């Protein structure tokens, strides 16, 4: 699989392993601009499942509008801020069967759970988009199943059916001048800027 797209397999597991989903079902997810959520948004419609993406309230109106357009262009049926989730009437009558919480925000998770159908499933998928169960989910599958899944996802990526999120690579070498401060600034800024900004990948150059 393309090494630039590590979130595709965990996204597939989120859609398959926690609860059976049928065409016409809805799921909601926060951390919607994260890498795994990015792939969930694209994979879910392939099975007739619609996605509600919940994004942070911070940022300018233009930044929020761009994030919404981007998520919708990749398959999100609805894009809401947390405030919008609490107040919208657009979810009335929708069969929301799964809510995926990736940020450990109790208030947000509660508001997402409140929108589920009776007996719906709230999934804690790993804080801040970390796929804590991804390796376990893969390990539960046979070698043949693992190979088939990876080949299928790689084919979708190669054909452009799945697309990678925007990434920013920060290259570094041990002993490089000013390295410690540059890495600190990069880590500090990640997740603190505008909603939907490029995700940072630290790359060690030997």
Automatic annotation (TrEMBL):
<dbReference type="InterPro" id="IPR036291">
    <property type="entry name" value="NAD(P)-bd_dom_sf"/>
</dbReference>
<dbReference type="GO" id="GO:0016491">
    <property type="term" value="F:oxidoreductase activity"/>
</dbReference>
<dbReference type="GO" id="GO:0006631">
    <property type="term" value="P:fatty acid metabolic process"/>
</dbReference>
<keyword id="KW-0560">Oxidoreductase</keyword>
<protein>
    <recommendedName>
        <fullName>NAD(P)-binding protein</fullName>
    </recommendedName>
</protein>
<dbReference type="InterPro" id="IPR051034">
    <property type="entry name" value="Mito_Enoyl-ACP_Reductase"/>
</dbReference>
<keyword id="KW-0521">NADP</keyword>
<dbReference type="GO" id="GO:0005739">
    <property type="term" value="C:mitochondrion"/>
</dbReference>
């Amino acid at each position: 699989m393309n090494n630039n797209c590590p979130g595709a397999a965990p996204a597939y597991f989120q859609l398959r392993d926690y609860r059976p989903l049928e065409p016409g079902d809805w799921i909601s997810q926060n951390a919607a601009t994260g890498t795994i959520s990015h792939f969930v948004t694209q994979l879910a419609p392939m099975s007739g499942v619609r996605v509600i993406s919940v994004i942070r309230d911070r940022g300018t109106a233009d930044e929020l509008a761009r994030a919404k357009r981007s998520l919708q262009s990749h398959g999100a049926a609805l894009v809401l801020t947390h405030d919008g989730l609490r107040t919208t009437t657009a979810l009335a009558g929708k069969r929301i069967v799964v809510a995926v919480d990736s940020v450990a925000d109790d208030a947000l998770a509660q508001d997402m759970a409140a929108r589920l159908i009776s007996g719906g499933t709230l999934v804690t998928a790993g804080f801040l988009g970390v796929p804590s169960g991804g390796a376990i989910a893969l390990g539960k599958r046979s070698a043949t199943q693992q190979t088939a899944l990876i080949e299928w996802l790689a084919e979708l990526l190669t054909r452009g059916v799945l697309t990678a999120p925007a990434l920013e690579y920060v290259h570094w070498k041990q002993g490089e001048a000013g390295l410690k401060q540059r890495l600190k600034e990069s880590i500090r800024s990640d997740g603190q800027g505008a909603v939907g900004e490029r995700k940072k990948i630290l790359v060690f150059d030997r």
